[in-house]
Design brief:
The protein is built from five helices and five strands. With about 150 residues, it is α/β, with parallel strands linked by helices.
Amino acid sequence: MTVPPSAATVALRGRLLAVDWGERRIGLAISDPTGTIASPVGFILRRPGKRPPIAEVMRRAAELEARGFVVGLPLDEMGDDTPRALEARHVASELEQRTGLPVSLVDERFTTAAARRAIHEMGGKARARRGDVDALAATVLLQHALRSVR
């Protein structure tokens, strides 16, 4: 089961920032202004015991001139919410409330596996490049969302 793109994603024009919300790192990717191509733009480290770095995500979005967000929703194998999915829903709500920009939640199952596979195929080691894996997972997520809108 995939989460269908919301009306917000369909109505968006301009650059979208994808957010792959993880326990240790938050992968980021941005689309081009036409909404055709997604590119990785790094990651944000999370500090244990600290508040989620939503303000840093907002800062990056402003810096990259994002017009909306795509937040990965980590569902289980049956398509149901996980504890991390509930956190992702909270983050999406906070981003929407605090920025006034539209936010879409998109099923992120298998994005990390696809990112690891891509790094392996390029001859790299995913373990040594965890931040790159997270940014690439956000890119896979965003590219999926962009394709589903077209």
